[in-house]
Amino acid sequence: xxxxxxxxxxxxxxxxxxxxxxxxxxxxxxxxxxxxxxxxxxxxxxxxxxxxxxxxxxxxxxxxxxxxxxxxxxxxxxxxxxxxxxxxxxxxxxxxxxxxxxxxxxxxxxxxxxxxxxxxxxxxxxxxxxxxxxxxxxxxxxxxxxxxxxxxxxxxxxxxxxxxxxxxxxxxxxxxxxxxxxxxxxxxxxxxxxxxxxxxxxxxxxxxxxxxxxxxxxxxxxxxxxxxxxxxxxxxxxxxxxxxxxxxxxxxxxxxxxxxxxxxxxxxxxxxxxxxxxxxxxxxxxxxxxxxxxxxxxxxxxxxxxxxxxxxxxxxxxxxxxxxxxxxxxxxxxxxxxxxxxxxxxxxxxxxxxxxxxxxxxxxxxxxxxxxxxxxxxxxxxxxxxxxxxxxxxx
Length: 395
Hints:
Elements: H1 3-14, E1 18-21, E2 27-37, H2 38-47, E3 52-57, E4 63-68, H3 76-83, E5 95-103, E6 117-118, E7 136-141, H4 154-157, H5 181-192, E8 197-202, E9 209-211, H6 212-229, E10 235-238, E11 240-241, H7 251-261, E12 265-269, E13 287-293, E14 316-319, E15 323-326, E16 332-333, E17 336-337, E18 341-344, H8 347-365, H9 369-376, E19 383-384, E20 388-390
Parallel strand pairs: 7-8, 7-10, 10-12, 12-13, 13-14, 14-20
Antiparallel strand pairs: 1-2, 2-4, 2-5, 3-4, 5-9, 5-11, 6-18, 15-18, 16-17, 19-20
């Protein structure tokens, strides 16, 4: 069994409301749920009425949830296909199964892309004075935990209890698979942009699982948080994603991302299935999709990490193997104790590498986010087929 297949099996075992559709190249979805943009909700409800148990307000502006009858035996993916008009439909109805998303560190069953391991302490990143502007990066992830790197920063002092990681209080127990994921990402961002102001929303559970609706809620809360503080949301990091049942984008998620992209540059992990299947939301046109580069020895050319996804839809590649960053100041894994730092691999950590580089350019040169992206990912930079522009220490 591959690492990716093992991870799917674990999710199906521990989440009874999740089903696998579409065979070996399929996707994970929530049972008996459809998400619909409000503009199409009446038409979709009418078309699926015989299978619908109830219609609900999702709590996200513009999105409706249809709950299907559990006794109807209907395949939500097949029903979605029909409601969209079938194969070849030009004007597609904005309805989707509620896909299950996963954080994108390496999968769980070993290999270089496996679980985090303890690492020696790193000196805290030191910012520079006189930066041209303050840059804000939003992170939708497992949340944030306390760490010596963070304590004195205003952004950490502004974090609420809901934005902190939901950790297992039993310190002698092994951690959930993605405990510390958001804390690690914060450290990667700070290593490249020490003065960055971070905004967190917790959407992933400690086992690294969320669904589209949770991500939609997180996007809405992140935008509301920025608006309430009267500040910008320059860059958003999404180290999570999923395959979809038909390898097309979810129209509901695509709509939310397009709205977010009007004000923010969005950077997302390309995923860790060693596949060229589009991984969403990274593969959306409004998103910078980031693959992972392997650990590089002196004198060698950069190359794809074995676990990293790749393909026409990938925009950039950055270091993503054996990265060292901030981690939990407690916790245990395989009888190894963590004391605030870890080594971990995955496209999850290549994405904030790129997001941090964008933030650093913005801060140093007073650039807009889009101008910083243009400079970082310009066509003259080194490129690798199916991995895009190489972003590394000298870029």
